[in-house]
Amino acid sequence: MNIIAAVDKNWAIGLNNKLLVSIPQDMAFFRHVTKGKVVVMGRKTLESLPGGTGLKNRVNIVLTTDKNYSKPDIVIVNNEKELLKELIKYEAEDIFIIGGEAVYRLLLPHCDKAYITKIDHAYNADSWFPNLDKDPDWTMTKTSDEQTYFDLEYVFTIYERKAV
């Protein structure tokens, strides 16, 4: 499985259930990488999307503890066991974990590749992605040239789980 996120220099990902910044090139990259794939998210992440609905041209799977939660065209699961059972139906390389913090932390051990947009700025935040630079199980295998959006500098990176 894959995981995808945009993080600031402190590995922050959000504030008040919103992204820290919207960079058009990062959004385009996200759409390109996840289109036609399976995206897994928590309920709050789903509700933060435009219209509070799933992403088009993707299988949307939402993890929530609310057993009465339902949304049209969304696969709802209520715990990790149900989620992993659901994910068996798909090719692992087609699955992308897209947030939020609790879902990232829960599923990171199941992932082998992480697409991380690293933004060279520190934001005020209330949610974070695990710092893969400090995790001995992960190594950065690719990084793009530095990109700029107004005064923000960022790079697209890929981290891969080290072979055991």
CATH architecture descriptor name: 3-Layer(aba) Sandwich
Largest sheet: 9 strands, mixed
Portion in beta strands: 35-45%
Q: Level of helix content?
A: 10-25%
How many helices in DSSP terms?
Answer: 4
Distance between the termini: 17 Å
Enter the CATH topology name: Dihydrofolate Reductase, subunit A
Describe the global form.
Answer: globular
Q: Rounded to an integer, what's the Rg over CA atoms? A: 15 Å
Question: Can you walk through the features of this model?
Answer:
The protein has about 160 residues and is α/β, with parallel strands linked by helices. It has a single domain (about 1-160), classed as Dihydrofolate Reductase, subunit A (3-Layer(aba) Sandwich). About 20% of the residues lie in helices and about 35% in strands. The protein is built from four helices and twelve strands, in the order E-E-E-H-E-H-E-E-H-E-H-E-E-E-E-E. The chain has helices at about 25-35, 45-50, 80-85, 100-105, and strands spanning about 1-5, 10-15, 20, 40, 60-65, 75, 95-100, 115-120, 125-130, 140-145, 145-150, 150-160. The longest helix has 11 residues, at about 25-35. The radius of gyration is 15 Å and the shape is globular.
